[in-house]
Amino acid sequence: MKKFQALLQLFGAIVLFAIALATLLNILFISTRPETISVVNAAIGLGVLCICSLAMGRIQWRKGRARLLASNKPDATGSGM
Questions:
Q1: pLDDT tens track for 21-79
Q2: How far from chain centre, in Å, is Cα 61?
Q3: What separation in angstroms does the CA of 9 have from each of 34, 55, 60, 72?
Q4: What pTM was estimated for this model as a whole?
Q5: 67 neighbors 11 (Cβ within 8 angstroms)
């Protein structure tokens, strides 16, 4: 079960990284428009969204990797299985 949760966290991190990449691409497309206050507001909002997506993705990636490595270690109960 821990391995399944770890794989879900890693998959979620990959999805968050893809969202951040798509957001960066969207910022590039928006920056080609004429400069108005709404374009600036959209760029700032998308920048915040991109940073948050990257931060959440990094957290999920590190937790998922740690959980996956912990699930591969033999347990310390001494049962020998």
A1: 999 999 999 989 998 999 999 999 999 999 999 999 999 999 999 999 998 887 656 55
A2: 7
A3: 40, 14, 6, 16
A4: 0.80
A5: no
